[in-house]
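EI: anyone free to look at a 119-residue chain?
SC: sure, send it
EI:
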Amino acid sequence: MYLTFDELHKQKSTIRSAELSEEEKDRLSKAYKEALALLRTNFLERILFIHGPTYEALKTELDDLAGEIVTAIFNDDLKLSRQGVYDREIGNKITNCQQRFFKTLYTYRGEEQLQTIDQ
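SC: here you go
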């Protein structure tokens, strides 16, 4: 699981290239989507059998992250080659998603505990 988030961060050097062609943008977009899809199929789908609402919350986190990254990659107005822009539009979003993902997992105490929180 940690490896998936690390893989997302490893694309940084490619994204920070001065100019990305449409072909490179497509390749990067697919790489991000594939990494997140692997996380979903290799780990997240198992959560569905344990607790549906937790699965849905984590799935939404990953889907939102994928959408935000793809939007940033294809937004020609963003200068992702600049460190601050990359961090704001992609890097920090990956890190924040990872933190929320693990916080959700580590604070899960069972069906009874989540029902109490939701009420």
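EI: The chain has one domain: 2-107.
SC: 👍
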